[in-house]
Structure prediction request, 961 residues.
Amino acid sequence: METLLDMNITQLRELLKRKEITSVELTGFYLDRIKRYDVELLTYIKLTEDVAMDMAKEADAKIAKGEDGRLLGVPLGIKDIYCTKGIETTCASQMLKGFIPPYDATVIKRLKEEGFVHLGRLNMDEFAMGSSTENSSFQVTKNPWDLERIPGGSSGGSASATAAGLCVASLGTDTGGSIRQPASLCGTVGMKPTYGRVSRYGLIAFASSLDQIGPITRNVTDCAMLMSIIAGYDPMDSTSLTQPVPDYMEYLGRDIKGMKIGIPKEYLVEGMDPDVKKTVEDAISFYVKNGASTVEISLPHTEYAVATYYIICTAEASSNLARYDGVKYGLRVDGKDIIDMYKKTRLKGFGKEVKRRIILGTYVLSSGYYDAYYKKAGQVRTLIRRDFEEAFKKCDIIITPVSPTTAFKAGEKTEDPLTMYLSDIFTIPVNLAGLPGMSLPCGFDSAGLPIGLQIIGQPLDEARMLQAAYVFEAENNVKKIPERFRNG
Amino acid sequence: MGLEVHAHLLTNSKLFCGCSTKFGAEPNSHTCPTCMGLPGALPVLNRKVVDFAIKLGLALHCDINRRSIFARKNYFYPDLPKGYQISQYEEPICENGYLDVFMGDTKKRIRVKRVHMEEDAGKLVHESTIETSSYSMVDYNRSSVPLLEIVSEPDIRTPEEAILYLKILRDVLIYLEICDGNMEEGSFRCDANVSVRRKGEAILGTRAELKNLNSFRSIERSLDYEITRQIELIKKGGEVVQETRLFNVDEGITYSMRGKEEAHDYRYFPEPDLLPLVVDDGWIADVRKTLPELPIEKMERFMNEYGLPKYDVEILSSDKGLAGYFEETVKIFPEPKTVSNWIMTELLRELKDGNVSPKDSPLSPAHLAELLALIKDGTISIKIGKEIFPELCKSGASPKRLVADKGLVQISDETAITSIVEAVIARSPKEVAEFKAGKEKLLGFFVGQVMKEMKGKANPKLLNELLLKRLKD
Prediction:
């Protein structure tokens, strides 16, 4: 059974189709693993065992009738940020405890149409605000490669569960690196698509102009497969893009001869871990050996990216989170009047980091400060976008590390939010520019912690990124699942 | 004074979702994740609302911005499910227009600063009143119903002008068929900014904003009150402060609701869930094609084309259906002033009594024309015409038919009338003597007597002639 962990979705589907295994068995296999390992990893906020078994049975019935579906019978883990009809959706916040959405997010609808099995709700930083999953109001998820370390965030539950084999694959969301950074720190593949490529309808908003949904998987093939399913125009999301979605799977296995890789000179930052630097450089050498060429590019406004990001994302968050007022759903703490009820509810319902960002966001939008902060940030954002446009005149993809360091220890940065914010320096500019970016496992540091390579593409050029990622994965056998999660 | 008008639009669905906009439904039955502000739900713009906004923009001679953006207006209130209202702030869809109003015989131009789209909030519902109820309930049926906000420049000088501007604006909205103009249901709401200045000064003083103006009457009263209040205040050496004031209908005075310090900081910023709205020339041209003739244009045309006095055209053009009714009738019976008189007196009274709109009038323009023709050619008298008018308005019958059926055709037979005249004179020697002695107003007595005998059907002109001839013999 352990070989199931090494199979991609296509291979699992073959087994299911040939009835060598049933979805109930496959789902049972994962549920057992979760019960066994998640006691220490704490990746799932909630296991939806009954729902999973019902969906698995339904999938088996469909398979028996000869029906097909790209995910028919395949168990996935879901970040607790997508509204899912009938299933409590909390965003890892006390504020939404007990909130059961009456509707499905578009991505959930698409997964359902392909017949997926819903294993449970994966942990995250509260309202996706954080880089370590320590801001979850429920539990602190561990990194499967070293239980003393954090899995990254905000999609830490998704990355950790995927890396430890507690689901076939999962979905995450990425506002400033929330898919790529945990994918990198946990040694999994993660993609943040072009802004607008995947519908945000039903995704609980953190920062609307930056949020994007994407897969976290154990291999590039599954990433391409899930992308094919979730990408595409949705009339329910006005920012969704209408361009047709290519068959990403078709690009896997194509060579990369002649591909031009841009290496930004600004990305050799202070505090960069030498192991990270070396491993990423080795990966670039691999590409060059396989027919690609490198070109130095410049992204001069990178140094302003983190500041710009924290103005824009907090401004949008302060407004997006205003709806949690105790009136309609989720938590309500009674007060002597309506204002008092608002205050008490929001005081109790939101965690420290969420409050910090709401306050910051409220401040930068306030009259008298708007021009100096929010408006200025918008202008810098344009400059950052232009940096990339210029750079892509010289190259096809850009390669950088995902994170300057490997996974840090739990509690190490919680009292120093600024350092935590700065660790997202490589991923944030990609969100600000609305570009696609992915994290690909490219090796380990001396402590055995995974290192991720970031591939940044031009708008809607996910196919080329997957093509490049697949070449590397196929030729470099980077270990995916930590040994301790393979034992019997 | 400057006025801010909120007009509810007559679209079937809401501004950002497909829910119905119907008034008066079961609470929260016209809602969905989007207009309830559920986590994760997103807005999708209703293009019909943009059509309406462009339509009004064109009618008010505005620049239609080729690119406009939606913005979030952030504030907390239980009827606002998202904690922000989606509105337009910088870069609204229409700017720099005007509306002409007639002040007596002179035309006055009130500039319109901007017209923008926004969503309405829900409604708080209480057991009896808000003061006595121990809890509030929220009905989100109205949440996200589309509104246009029309902001005038401070060009209005008197409460009278304000009312005229509002009435014409309301007529325009109704003409365009984008708003029903119903003030009681809140489809047409108004806030007013009031400031005063000393004679000769160029700059207007600090303004106060008046809210809760639910009828033309309260608008006029509150403006009157507020102007006097500000002038008295300044005369006494006081200073007007920037604040929001609420009009109390019962007391007829305005109260301070919140001062400048308590003013909300709405923290407007561009709505990231919606792309900038791009309107191209083709879109504007398409909407322009649907634009009807507007009240003021109609008024001017009616004066020139039909030679009607201003009083008449104001009444006729106040309602598109009524103006259409008039023109239909004149087409068949080309005596505009006569048609206008009958419409303004008889028809409007009957329509009002029956609570019917002109376009639904059972008496069709063709029938009115027929009736007027019957009078003109002497078939019936004006008096008979007026008598049968209510019935024609109720039944929708053909006037010719009714006149024939009831035997109301006027008698113009000289012999027939003369015989009655003789009979009446014969039995009234006293009156005849008095008449001959100079009491000529007794003519009316004789006319009445004859008419009574003839059931009012005698041709009055002929009767007069015959009577005078006989009496003066």
Observations:
- DSSP finds 15 helices and eleven strands in chain A.
- The first strand of chain A starts at residue 44 and ends at 47.
